Fold this sequence. Notes:
The protein is mainly α. It has helices at about 10-35, 45-55, 55-95, 100-115, 120-130. The termini are far apart.
Amino acid sequence: MLASSYPFLNVLYDMLLFFAFVIWIWLLIVCFADIFRRHDTGGFSKALWIIFIIIAPYLGVLIYIIAEHQGMADRNVKQVQQAQAQTDEYIKSVAGSADPAETIAKGKQLLDSGAITQAEFDDLKKKALA
């Protein structure tokens, strides 16, 4: 009974409105994240952007995206490059050296200093040569 009083076009319209609202929330989060991530503007201009977006939500988000689209893209690219560089640096530090001679030489230094035992040095040498 209830479904017969709620036509299909109304369902589609409600779904469209819900989708538009979700997209607007996503754009709002992206704009706020970009405002707080910026280093080229001061606190006063950031506060003005935030106030403008809160007072005129739809218009504020659209104007911010139109006015700052290139800067947003540049900041996103820079952030991704920094994250990739940090990841690469971490992987290199965890992976260690690929040169077996260098690994054995470091192991020999540790053995000579007494930091590791002869058995540990032998294990390290086997792993480096494997």
